[in-house]
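Task 17 of the worksheet. Students: predict the tertiary structure of the chain below and write it out as structure tokens. Keep your answer in the requested format; marks are given for formatting as well as content.
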Amino acid sequence: MSEEIYDTIIIGGGVSGFAAAMYAGRFEMKTLLLGDIMGGVIITTNEVANYPGFKMVSGMELADKLREHALEYNVEMKEEKADGVEKTSDGFAVTAKSGTYKTKTIIFATGTEWRKLGVSGEKEYANKGVHYCALCDGAFYKDKTVAIVGGSDSAAKDALVLTEYAKKVYMIYRGEQIRPEPINLRRVEQNEKIEVINKTNVKEIKGEQFVTSVVLDKEYNGSSELALDAAFIAIGHIPLSSLAKDLGVALNEKNEIIIDRHGMTNLEGVYAAGDVVDTDFKQAITGVGEGVTAAYNAYNHISK
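Model answer:
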């Protein structure tokens, strides 16, 4: 264990973590950020049109700008995963591949991972026609027939991305009707390549070497089997809160970290921000604000 003591260690390399690091640097806190995927989930987003100040920016570009801004200050970043966090007599110890680091405060900005559908064939055909990132993998399906499983705003945006490559895009959703933001609903409705299948679940994903079809729980156009070249799963995310839970941080029924308006958890010196916390509205801009708030209150904590 290094004898060096950080003022704060930020766990998570997405936009919330970068914002927290930038403000911690401005407060002249000795800061370390650990992130196994620098940029986080937003780097898989093709177009971000709801971040104030940018009419349109790619997720990768936005993440890069926030990271570069943070690095203008005396901030360390290591592209590696935090494996454990423990309470010590004078703060906390964070274990990673490169060593164990001591800190006075912790900011969890660990984000989420894609939720799995949990049906037969999903695991077997992962990256062989089953995907979770339209922006990452859509280009492999030029002039093919694909489906998005899900009906959220993210699912609608994924469907629109896929129309840039595929000849046909189905949206398969279990609910009465898909529920994207109004502007994206209009875009879906106006796109001739997209066909929505409501009140329907995917029961199985079938294939040979690669995906060939999905089995539905009700017939569509006279058949319960829909021929496809790929299925993109867009049914939400799971909070990556296990490190916080192991430390004793309180979680809600969704396994999200519970914070107050100051970004504080139930443990003194422990803060959280971004998609991993229990806020209803999860956007890049709200996560950035939460990261800034967490850094400010971590600074107040060590200042006292």
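Marker's comment: The mean pLDDT is 95. The longest helix spans residues 284-303.
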